[in-house]
Amino acid sequence: MVLFSTTPIIAIVVVPLYGYHYGFDTFEWIVFISLMVFCGMSITAGYHRLWSHKTYRAHPILRVIFALGGACALQNDILHWVSDHRRHHQFVDNNEKDPYSAKRGFWFSHIGWILRNYQSGREDLSNVKDLSSDTVVVFQHKHYLKLAVATNIGLPYILGLIHGDVLGCLLLGGVLRLVLSQHCTYLINSAAHIWGRQPYSKASTARDNPLLALLTYGEGYHNYHHTFQWDYRNGNRWWHYDPTKWLIRSLSIVGLTKELKTCSAARVETAQLETQYLQAAYNCKLLEVSEAWQKCLEDEYNQFLQVLKTWSEHRQEFFEKRKFSNLDKLEKLELLKRNKELSTRLKGHRRRWAQMVGSLGHPTLVIS
Ligand SMILES: [Zn+2]
Ligand SMILES: [Zn+2]
Q1: Between 26-41 and 243-253, two packed helices, what is the crossing angle to 10 degrees?
Q2: What is the CA(326)–ligand 2 centre distance, in A?
Q3: For the chain, what are the domain ranges?
Q4: Which ligand has its closest atom nearest to the C-alpha of 98?
Q5: CB atoms within 10 A of CB 182
Q6: Is the pLDDT of residue 363 over 70?
Q7: Helical spans, DSSP H, in the chain
Q8: pLDDT tens for residues 175-219?
Q9: Cα separations (Å) of 363 from 293, 356, 359?
Q10: CA 356 / ligand 1 centre spacing (Å)
């Protein structure tokens, strides 16, 4: 309570006052940004995608860096963070069991759940037994307080000594960085469960919000993440702003990460299609659309789904054959021809589906 109430006050009152009277120079801003990224990425790439969801494997050196960055972010040790987060996924939106259930409101899911002892937040580390064999996790758990003090006070203090302005470094690299990095992470538990789109599943309150992705190193694609939590990406398209995904991918080139898990494009599209169909069927009932039209929608949905499945199986067969056997020219041409055929059929289905679903947004077009 003391920590979470005093640090924001210092960040809001003392930091601007100090800046006004003495100013902050480039070195201090570089310290601030570097520590922001260090803490933020340690939480997203380390605590979240590595330890909570095991979406990839990381070299011990990288795990040590993430463990230090996590201590610097002051969001509890890996074991507790991961335990809470796994329960969040398992019991999402269940007010009794989800430690930061968004159904209890913005304040509770943002920070309220940390400020008081709630039944939903009681300690239960039975879901993180797999991490007890990770020596980095165990070491961080044992020495968490010392590491938190060393990274939050010691590190900016030493940098300040080198630079010649200890207070300036402590205020920017210590306090302001701590408050901002914590609240950016908390936005995922609160805002990303309230505002945004739900293209992959409406089973939970999780939403995709590209604006939040900008503040959280790519974690804003939260609807995708809750639907495919084993995927190392949160922004699944190449153009989605997800620096955590880019970091993990880049580190795989130099061997610091490996076994990156992804969800196939066909599976992602199937999830999208299912969500759109459920919404469209609901809209049909709401708009009292004729039964014949509803049947049309259902038929198109089933055909689209079937072609998607065939296309996915064909692609898998193609890649496997290319990988494990020497395809002769004729066989390769056959496979490519079939792939082209299926892709053309898919395009047709995509176009028809978009028209059908789109027309439900204009009731006058569909009520006959
Ligand atoms: Zn997660
Ligand atoms: Zn969530």
Answers
A1: 80
A2: 45
A3: 2-258, 265-367
A4: 2
A5: 20
A6: no
A7: 2-9, 15-21, 26-41, 60-73, 78-90, 106-107, 113-115, 135-142, 144-149, 155-163, 166-169, 177-189, 210-215, 222-227, 243-253, 265-287, 291-324, 329-359, 363-366
A8: 999 999 999 999 999 999 999 999 999 999 999 999 999 999 999
A9: 13, 12, 7
A10: 34
Is the pLDDT confidence value at 321 over 80?
Answer: no
Q: What is the average per-residue pLDDT within 86-108?
A: 95
Around Cβ 336, how many Cβ atoms within 10 Å?
Answer: 11
Residue 136 CA to residue 134 CA, distance in Å, equals: 6
Q: How close is the Cα of 226 to the center of ligand 1, in Å?
A: 7
Q: How far is the CA of 20 from the centre of ligand 1 (A)?
A: 40
CA distance 285 to 74: 49
Ligand 2 centroid distance, CA of 75 (Å): 16
Q: Given a cut of 90, is residue 121 above it in pLDDT?
A: no
The pLDDT, as a whole number, for residue 362 is 53
Report whether 88 contacts 100 (CB < 8 A).
yes
Q: What angle do CA 303, 305, 306 make, to 5 degrees?
A: 65
- Collapsing DSSP to helix, strand or coil, 13 comes out as helix
- Residues having C-beta closer than 5 Å to ion ligand 2: 206
Closest ligand, as measured to the CA of 55: 1
Indicate the Cα dihedral angle 46, 48, 52, 55, nearest 10°: -80
Tokens 């860096």, located at residue: 65
Q: What is the pTM of this model?
A: 0.90
| Ligand with an atom nearest the CA of residue 196 | 2
Residue 95 CA to ligand 2 center (angstroms) comes to 13
pLDDT-derived band at 366, boundaries 50, 70, 90: very low
CA-CA distance, 354 to 357, in Å (whole number)? 5
Asked if 100 contacts 189 with a C-beta cutoff of 8 angstroms, the reply is yes
Residue 257: in which H helix or E strand, if any? strand 257-258
Q: Angle CA(56)–CA(33)–CA(77) in degrees, nearest 5?
A: 45
Distance, CA 219 to ligand 1 centroid (Å)? 9
As a residue count, the chain comes to 368
